[in-house]
Each structure stands twice: as C-alpha cells, then as structure tokens.
Amino acid sequence: MATLKRIKGTQDILPGISEQWAALEALIRDVMRAYNFRELRTPIFEQTELFARGIGQLTDIVSKEMYTFLDRGKKQLTLKPEMTAPIMRAYL
C-alpha cells in the first residue's frame, strides 16, 4: 500500500511547534483587541454562487481550482477558497 503523504505546499503543525503558534496567535489577538478589532468566523463552505458571482462562472478558478459539491437539497456548495467573499456576505 502506498504511503500517504501530506499535500505539497502544506505542513503539519506538530506538538512543540503548535504551542509556539498558539502563543503567537494569542499575542496577535491581544493586539487586535487593543485596537478594537473583533474576530469573525465564516463557514468553511458557501454557496458556489457567492464565489462565481465575484470572479465569473466560466473562469478556470471556478471550474478547476475550487472543490464544489451538491448538498442533500441539490444546492451547489464550494469549500471556501479565500476569505473576502464570505466576509462581505456576512456583513451585507
């Protein structure tokens, strides 16, 4: 059986390093809080139309670079490729 490897361009953040990341993230949160910024978290997937509307339905990005699937109700959903569109949707 072939060995499963992580995807090229990604890395695992293992114990030891993950604590360093957590400390850095806490520091960043403290600085952001001091400037009255607040955190916003959007779902990991959105309706495909949200991304297609911004970049065009027929572009290579929509057809080749985004993971799209149908939910149980046959709505087309896409894993979030970036944060801009979901944040704008949340605020509008």
Automatic annotation (TrEMBL):
What InterPro entries does this protein map onto?
aa-tRNA-synth_II/BPL/LPL, HisRS-like_core, HisRS/HisZ
Top-rank taxon? Bacteria
| Keyword Mitochondrion set for record | no
Q: Which GO terms describe its cellular component?
A: cytoplasm
Key words of the record:
Ligase
Say if the entry is tagged with keyword Ligase. yes
Q: Name one GO biological process term.
A: histidyl-tRNA aminoacylation
User: Domain Class II Histidinyl-tRNA synthetase (HisRS)-like catalytic core, which positions?
Assistant: 9-90
Gene Ontology molecular function, alphabetical: histidine-tRNA ligase activity
Provide the leader sequence positions. none
PANTHER family per UniProt? HISTIDINE--TRNA LIGASE, MITOCHONDRIAL-RELATED, HISTIDYL-TRNA SYNTHETASE
Protein name, per record: Histidine--tRNA ligase
The protein's organism comes out as: Caldithrix abyssi
